[in-house]
């Protein structure tokens, strides 16, 4: 049950972050958005990590997993923000959301076991995510979506998938705040600092609350996922990938983007799949 709730919480937070950054990436550029998202998160996470202190379980192996998790998270966000700047949210989000399936496959290959019913339900939920995240039919005939944007989204899915698995591996070994910290620290040093030194770190009054909200939602989502992954990486990762469906529904409510019949069907499949999965694992 905790794996389910953790994954769903991550989906809600990351979907909200996607909605925020889809607007700001075109205004500020992917680099500035990533920098502010990382800095916003670091301001919150670093004091908590200092209060927590260095974990006694932090050795070379655990440090390696944390470094891998943080690096993949930063690279994945950089790719997805640039993809959102160039292309359509309705295409970028579902492609990037395959991160959950990638992380689940890695977890299963690494030895995590799933019951047959749970595995089948995760497949059903993944199918619902694909349907709910599809762009409405009327959007498919607009200007062409750049190939570069799609390729970046594919790269983001791959890096996020590896990062999710790495985060899940150490989520039960170190405090959650230490799972979140590496990406923020790496982002601040290797993204925000170089951009600031070149005088290219942009921020407007309109975009400021959006990038701060995205930064807070990113760390809240990772915290929720890390807690869920302690009880099942595959389940938490697949459910976390519902952020694409959350973003599609959020765009409908906030930006008045239409949901097609296919998208509505996908949302129904997700709700039914999650309900049954919850009952099976209760």
Q: What is this entry, summarized?
A:
The chain has 282 residues and is mostly helical. Helices cover 79% and strands 0% of the residues.
Describe this structure in words.
It is globular, with a radius of gyration of 18 Å. It is mostly helical. The chain has one domain. The chain contains twelve helices and no strands.
Low-confidence stretches: 139-143
The tally of beta strands, per DSSP, is 0
Anisotropy-based shape: globular
Order of helices and strands: HHHHHHHHHHHH
Tell me the distance between the termini.
Answer: 6 Å
Identify the quaternary structure here: single chain
Count helical runs. 12
Mean pLDDT, to the nearest integer, reads: 86
Number of domains: 1
Rg calculated over all Cα atoms = 18 Å
Helix content: over 70%
What is the makeup of the main sheet?
none
Going by helix content, strand content and strand pairing, the class is mainly alpha
Tell me the β content: under 5%
Question: What descriptors fit this protein?
Answer:
282 residues; mainly alpha; 12 helices; globular
Task: Write the SSE topology.
Elements lengths: L1 H27 L1 H23 L7 H27 L2 H8 L2 H11 L6 H18 L13 H24 L5 H22 L10 H22 L3 H8 L2 H12 L6 H21 L1
């Amino acid at each position: 049950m905790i794996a389910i709730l953790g994954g769903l919480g991550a989906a809600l937070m990351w979907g909200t972050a996607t909605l925020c950054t889809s607007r700001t990436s075109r205004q500020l550029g992917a680099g500035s958005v990533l920098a502010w998202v990382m800095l916003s998160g670091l301001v919150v996470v670093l004091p908590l990590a200092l209060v927590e202190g260095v974990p006694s379980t932090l050795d070379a192996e655990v440090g390696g997993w944390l470094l891998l998790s943080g690096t993949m998270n930063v690279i994945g966000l950089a790719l997805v923000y640039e993809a959102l700047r160039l292309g359509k949210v309705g295409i970028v989000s579902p492609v990037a959301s395959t991160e959950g399936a990638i992380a689940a496959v890695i977890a299963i290959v690494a030895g995590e076991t799933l019951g047959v019913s749970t595995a089948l339900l995760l497949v059903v939920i993944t199918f619902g995510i694909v349907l709910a995240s599809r762009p409405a039919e009327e959007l498919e005939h607009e200007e062409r979506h750049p190939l570069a944007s799609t390729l970046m989204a594919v790269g983001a899915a791959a890096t996020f998938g590896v990062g999710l698995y790495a985060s899940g591996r150490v989520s039960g070994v170190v405090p959650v705040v230490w799972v979140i910290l590496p990406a923020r620290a790496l982002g601040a040093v290797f993204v925000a600092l170089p951009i600031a030194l070149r005088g290219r770190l942009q921020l407007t009054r309109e975009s400021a609350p959006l990038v701060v909200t995205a930064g807070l939602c990113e760390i809240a989502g990772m915290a929720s996922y890390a807690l869920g992954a302690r009880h099942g990486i595959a389940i938490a990762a697949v459910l976390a990938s519902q952020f694409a469906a959350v973003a599609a529904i959020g765009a409908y409510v906030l930006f008045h983007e239409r949901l097609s019949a296919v998208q509505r069907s996908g949302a129904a499949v997700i709700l039914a799949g999650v309900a049954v999965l919850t009952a099976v694992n209760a």
